[in-house]
Amino acid sequence: MLRNSDTRWGWLSKGLHWLAALAILVLLTHGWWMTHMTPRPERVANYAWHAAIGYDLLALLVLRLLWRWVNPVPAMPGDLKRWEVIAARSGHVGLYLLLFTTSLTGWALAGTLRSPLARDMFGLPVPMIASGGDRALHNFLEETHMIVAYLLAALVVVHIVGAFRHHLIKRNDVMRRMWFGPAGSAKGASGDSDTVAPSAPAKIGS
Question: What is the secondary structure of 100-134 as a DSSP string?
Fold first, then answer.
């Protein structure tokens, strides 16, 4: 089933979810590694690769939101307490906000480098939304990108823990229905668990 229904996620929503999840985990891990472990002469190539994936992830996020807008969202399990519903919805809003903030600050930061990073993973040109020459702006974007990315990493961990809580403790279909394959017959309907991105905790030097 391509489209979502009131009780389960469609194949496209699942595919977009797992592509975003993979990209976010790669970028978070790579961002930390390239700023802490990579020798400085090798960082420029890593910055370019990091930015390229970040651009494509931002496009993927926009596509996800558009698809979500024209599709029903499966209902949350009926046995959830009010605080659990509020926490789930707040968590997903928080993930989207942090994803977009991290992506946009990374995009702006890429334009303030001596050699702007203006290509995505497919070699397509990406317009810059900020330009070099202002060291204060570069430092601000660099620091903001790093802080927001760490916050994103923390919320991703909370999201994963919450999914396993639904699966192992609540024993409902929230996690199961985001997998490809039979959803099973756990109690309750699927929850709003389609979000997990893009950039890593990266402190980029110019």
Answer: HHHHHHHHHHHHTSSS---B-TTS-B---SS-SS-
